[in-house]
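Sat 14:20. Reprocessing the chain from the morning session after the first attempt stalled halfway. Input below, unchanged.
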Amino acid sequence: MSRTALLVLTDGRFPAGGHAHSGGVEAAVAGRAVHDPATLYAFCRGRLHTAGLTAAALAAAAAAGHDPLVLDEAADARTPAPALRATARKLGRQMLRAARAAWPCEALERLARDLPGGAHQPVVLGVAAHAAGLTALDAAHVAAFDSIGAPAAAAVRLLGLDPFDATAVLARLGDDVDTVARRAADAAARVADEGVGILPAASSPLLDITAEQHAAWPMRLFAS
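Finished this time. Tokens:
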């Protein structure tokens, strides 16, 4: 069952709200930083090893059974941009709705009660993964892949990019996703002894800056 759960969580049709978000690539396209498959690859690789690593570690720690409220505070500390904090909680609310329907359990209900305004999406992902019988490494893989899947899908719509080229970008990043997931799971395994401070806090200042700018646009295709 857990293998199927992993596929469900990584399926773009899972109703977690990610289709409405570009992972920062809409602003990158507007600034001409992303304009073809090569620049999309560079953007996704950079996002994977920064925001993706941080999210994967939080998800892995939650999947390992660590306190989601403590992890949510750690996520806040690792998300300096208000626009990205708001996005993370919005996505967390949507993912929690889907996860409660798919894998109903007390842990998910308790998270909904304790954080009615929404928990950070990676934390919700980790709790959902645990409820679905997945491992910390599984959760890290889902979060890592999600950090590049959303920008790649958005680039197809924003640039009219060939979907085959966008898929090739994801495939080329396969080894990087595996590496990030392993690093994240290894860090999560140390939380019990060393606390949440051991989790990665990789930064991507340009994503933070452009997220704030994007949030102020009067017209945009994606919510973030």
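The longest helix spans residues 37-63.
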